[in-house]
Specification:
Elements: H1 2-12, H2 20-27, H3 31-41, H4 50-62, E1 65-68, E2 72-75, E3 86-89, E4 92-95, H5 96-105, E5 114-115, E6 128-129, H6 131-147
Antiparallel strand pairs: 1-2, 3-4, 5-6
The protein binds zinc ion.
Zinc ion (ZN) is lined by residues 72, 115, 117, 119, 122, 124, 127.
Length: 148
């Protein structure tokens, strides 16, 4: 019952932003139960400063993107030696693609984040995918090819 719901909430959201207490209230159980599910599923611990850090990165990202035709986004900020768009904040730096992914999916990326469109270094949230999402898109493309 609540175990499944808590495990799903931790898997679909960002466990570092979901406190045991908040989940306990949502699922009508004790914080200890949530802590147990968190431990059993291997979800990371809640971090009070994590949300402020994420928002700083998202604001820095939003200040340095420019919409271009076709739903793509151009980066106007700092780039790495290799030309990779980088978001710089007082908390450190992160690639713009990772921040865009987090905005679109509501969870942190797993593995590398790459653009799925043909626009070089596009940083549109809808144009980036992490490893699990790329695998999902490939599976869907194969299934579509079979169905067609
Ligand atoms: Zn794009």
């Amino acid at each position: 019952m609540s175990y499944e719901g808590i495990a799903r909430a931790l898997a679909n959201g960002d466990p570092r932003e979901l406190s045991d207490q908040a989940l306990a209230e949502r699922f009508g159980c004790t914080a200890e139960t949530v802590a147990r599910v968190r431990h059993q599923t291997g979800a990371p611990a809640y971090s009070a400063g994590y949300r402020a850090r994420r928002i700083a990165f998202e604001e820095a990202y939003a200040a340095r993107v420019e919409d271009v035709e076709g739903g793509h986004r151009r980066w106007t900020g700092t780039v790495s030696k290799d030309g990779v768009p980088m978001v710089c904040t007082r908390f450190g730096q992160e690639t713009a693609a990772r921040i865009a992914f987090r905005i679109a999916q509501g969870r942190p990326p797993v593995g590398h984040v790459k653009a799925t469109c043909e626009v070089p270094h596009c940083v549109a949230p809808d144009c980036v995918a992490d490893r699990p999402l790329r695998e999902e898109l490939r599976r869907a493309a194969r299934a579509g090819a079979v169905a067609a």
